[in-house]
Design a protein that fits this description.
This protein is α+β, with helices and mostly antiparallel strands. The protein has 3 helices and 6 strands, in the order αβββαβαββ.
Length: 147
């Protein structure tokens, strides 16, 4: 099954997002680089949000990223996930950022596989605040493997 179909099975809407101040996804050479996509969920992990809630927020960020990539490239097929950066609005003693960002990684693994095109590098970091009070922000880099 192709990536477009897998994404739709995972309830990823492929309609374009309305861009804000900056481009949501830009192509340079054979790379697609996204801006940070924030969750609609607001709050602080380890204070008023649980890891499970953060995981769902990271999945939401990934859905938005996939929409932007699809809108820019015209398909989710023929891509390799290269890198994710996950930012988590964290209480000072919260140390499970990696478990939160697993929400985005797991979605990409479900679409592109846990090895090969879905196997990616990743950073998961805690922040004192994120724009608009969002719980999670994720950005991504994809390689265009084929058209």
């Amino acid at each position: 099954m192709d990536a477009n179909r897998k994404a739709q099975e995972l309830e990823v809407c492929l309609e374009p997002l309305k861009p804000g101040y900056l481009n949501l996804c830009v192509r340079t050479g054979n790379l697609l680089i996204t801006s940070g996509h924030v969750s609609d969920m607001k709050g602080v992990l380890g204070k008023n949000l649980t890891v499970d809630q953060g995981y769902e927020a990271a999945k939401e960020c990934c859905r938005k990223i996939l929409r932007s990539v699809y809108h820019t490239h015209g398909t989710l097929n023929g891509l390799k996930v290269i890198k994710l950066l996950g930012c988590v609005y964290s209480a000072p003693d919260f140390t499970d950022q990696h478990l939160v960002i697993n929400g985005a990684s797991d979605m990409l693994h479900a679409i592109y596989g846990t090895d090969g095109d879905g196997w990616h590098a990743r950073s998961a970091l805690g922040f004192a605040a994120l724009p608009t009070g969002a719980a999670v922000e994720v950005e991504a880099i994809f390689e265009i493997r084929s058209l």
